[in-house]
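pls ignore typos typing on phone
zinc ion + seq
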Amino acid sequence: MNIKEKCVVSMHYKLTDETGQLIDASEDQPLLYIHGTNSLIPGLEKQLDGKVKGDQIIAKVAPEEGYGPVMPQLIQNLPLSTFQGVEKIEVGMEFEASNDNNEKMIVRVDAVDGEEITINGNHPLAGKTLNFDVNIVDVREASEEELSHGHVHGAGGHQH
Ligand code: ZN
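k done
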């Protein structure tokens, strides 16, 4: 069957950035998701639409259909004194912060320059063009129960 809304898709995938560097990949077990439920980024889901078991898809996804553009307002320089109680600030550390709308967000440390700390609240993949190499392992109808739970059951999915 063709991939369409409310299908369970099993796939192996490899994600690389513009320079060909590996970002992420499926492991021994394929990734399972329900098509049409925003489980994947829109640009990838769109390119998998209509494909069948056995297909290989090379999908290039622009930031607009991936994790969005880098928003400069989410990058800030803060004085070290903001991080009271943290023994040592290092690049790559993540903190929970609140934005102007009082929503919780994860920010990570992008740079440490003496007393000045640069934090970044953008998704790590924001602004990146993503290259997916996908192999469709299986396509089947989702069960009513899976649709009501919003996730896949059985082997490779939720066991309950
Ligand atoms: Zn469930």
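Helices lie at 42-48, 144-149. The first strand starts at residue 7 and ends at 16. more later
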